[in-house]
Here is the input.
Amino acid sequence: MSAQDLLPPSTTMGTLTLKVGDLPAMTAYYSAALGLRVLEEEAHAVVLGRGSHPVVRLESAGHLRLPGRGEAGLFHTALLFTGRADLAAAVASAANHPLSTFVGSADHLVSEAFYFSDPEGNGIELYVDRPRDGWDWTRDGDGNRTVMMDNLPLPPRDYLERHLTEEAVAGADSRAAEVGHVHLQVGDVATAHRFYVDVLGFERTAGWHDQALFVSAGGYHHHMAMNVWNSRGAGPRKDTLGLGEVLIRVPSESEVSALADRLAFAGVDSHHTGAELHVEDPWRNRLRVSAAGVQGGIA
Here is the structure.
C-alpha cells in the first residue's frame, strides 16, 4: 500500500455515539461512574465529555432491542487518560458504581487497561499508554511491522494503592480524557482487513491468527480493533441498541476526499459531503470520517 492510500499519521478517534434504551439513566451512569460532564443536550441525545472535550454521545432509542452476544457491533469503547493518577481515579469511580460490571484488567505492554460494562452491556475500557519509546516493534511471518502486546496481570487493588490521589479524584470531570480506540465485534477477520486496511487506509499493527485484528494510523498501537471471539460468522447488523456511530478525525477535507475516492474505486458506497464522509463497514457498523474542526462534528 502506498503512502497516499493510508490515513494520515495525525488521524484520531472522535466522539463515539451509543444508542441507549434509557437516556436519563445512562446519562447519570456516565456522569457518576466515569466522571464525564454533560456538554450538550439535544431533544433526544446528550453529549458528555471531560473539560470541554466531547467523548460520548448518548442517543435515545428505547424502541430498539439489546443486541445478542454473538452479533456484530461494539466490543468496547476505550477512554484514554493522560496519566496513571487520572486512570486510577476513573477506575475507582467506575468500580464503586453499583451499576458497573468489572470485567478485568491487563498490562498490555503498550498500555495499562481496566475493563467494565455499562448498565446496558456496552463494553468500556479505561486505559493509559506507556511511553511510545518503550513500545517494541517486530516483523511477523509475512514481514508486516507488528507492535508487541500481551495480557499480563494488573491487580486493580495494587494499582489504586500506588496511583490513586485525592487531587485526581477531586478534579476528575475537568481532567483530560478522550476516545483512544474503538474495538468492534465482526464476522471474520479477513473481511475486516480488506475493509479497514486495504480500503479505509489504516495500517495493521497486530493480530492473532484469524481471531483479532488491530489497526492504526501514524504508528499508534491501535485506533481500532476487530475480533470474532463472540461473533464469528456474524452477518450484517440489525438496528439495535449499542453502537450508533464511530467518528474518525483526519486533518483536512483533502484527506476526506482522498478516502471517498478510495471507497469509490473499491466499489464501497459512501456519502461524501466535502468535510465529512459516512460509510458502513461490511457488518453495517456506521463510520463517520470528518475533517478536524468541522462544526457539528459531535452531532
User: Anything to note?
Assistant: Residues 3-291 form a domain with the 2,3-Dihydroxybiphenyl 1,2-Dioxygenase; domain 1 fold (CATH 3.10.180.10). The chain has a mean pLDDT of 95.
